[in-house]
Amino acid sequence: MLAEYMMFEGDSFDWLETVLPVLAEGFASLPPGPTPPLDQTAMVEVLRETAIRLRENYPYFHPLYAGQMLKPPHPIARAAYALAMRINPNNHALDGGRASSQMEIEAVRALAAMFAWTAHLGHLTGGGTFANLEALWVAGQLHPDQTILASDQAHYTHQRISGVLQLPFASVASDARGRMCLDALEARLQQGNVGTVVVTLGTTALGAIDSLPEILALRDQYGFRVHVDAAYGGYFTLVSNLDAESVAAYAALPAADSIVIDPHKHGLQPYGCGCILFRDPSVGRFYKHDSPYTYFSSDELHLGEITLECSRAGAAAVALWATQRALPLTHGGEFAGMLESCRSAALEFYRRLCVSSLFIAPIRPQLDIVVWAIPGATVEESSNRARAVFDAAARRDLHLALVHLPRRFFASDTWPGSNRTSHDSARVTCLRSVLMKPEHLAWIDQIWERVEAASQEVVMR
Fold first, then answer.
1. Same domain? 220 vs 354
2. Is residue 145 part of a domain?
3. DSSP conformational letter for 441
4. What is the pLDDT of residues 383-410, one digit of tens each?
5. Torsion, CA 268, CA 209, CA 244, CA 279, rounded to 10
6. 232 and 207 Cβ atoms separated by less than 8 Å
7. What is the pTM of this model?
8. In what helix (H) or strand (E) does residue 258 lie, and over which residues does it extend?
């Protein structure tokens, strides 16, 4: 089975060898350049050592890796990235990435269209962290010294970025399903001095979807900006098997002020590839600058004038462009069907957890992330058992993740042997599975067998 999941790599290299002459034709008029001296034997030996070192990783590409948010790039993305690396373009300026800059503009336009935006300003970044930094930087330019709010289940990067930008930050409590609590949000808004509310569509721990329509209604009343961190969940706007609350949240996305999405998560791209989008293109005025040494090839707006990052891999834009050409971002299309399979896998896994006495599944997944606990007399015993199941599953080649959740996400009588107010029982160590590969649906029986066997081994000790 392992070889089966590695063979596609050979396919992508075959594609690459087929199209390399096409690339070379574009430069055929150049005189032959110098050939660098290479010791082929030494290079192969170094690569052999590299391959041995890489074997120390978990098998992130395989369906039995169901732990963190790690998804293999599509073969077309790998091939297009490698093709672009023959030139190694830099998308900071047209001088350094003429073709790849235009491909980035087209790829980002397709992402914006997925959220029903025609007029927009956007570009790729090295990842979601830097994309969120740009969103909060613009927010700070528009509302200087005003507070950034985010849920206590939002990614920690928002608080850290606010500190870097020297903007005040406050955390808003989440509800029993891991979404931003609307009552807590309004109570904080009534105190004033709030410039931006970060709404998360797909929290890291649970994949929870904040209530965007209701938060937009509060924006109308209190006048703050709405930034949507959809780094993980953004692509789910294309799928047809979400619950009604999630559908409503995605339907409200066009009214957001800014959106972050990470193509290197569900967009089938290599790391790092994030994207920041602004609904109002006029925020580009905050980026504007003059450079005496970089930009001489065009009078048109180039990406270097609307990004905080300078050098950026043009190959990332080429890979994304090629992937979106092969798998368009359309409702009912092949790409959307892949995401629907991930969602179906999560729902089926959650159903099995709920009917088994071996597990406690507190929250129905909104996307493709499932979290569960192992029963125990106390929170401490349950947490220790979860860690033991994590290890037992790994011995069966199933790789899960661990997450620490607030005890309030569980029913009050879940651990009758624990003191509910004691400090050491405030958080519960749980198991977490990100079923983000389309193949996970077909592998759900094998995943379940391993989870069940690992749990029985631990509970029956």
1. no
2. yes
3. T
4. 999 999 999 999 999 999 999 999 999 9
5. -70
6. yes
7. 0.94
8. strand 258-261
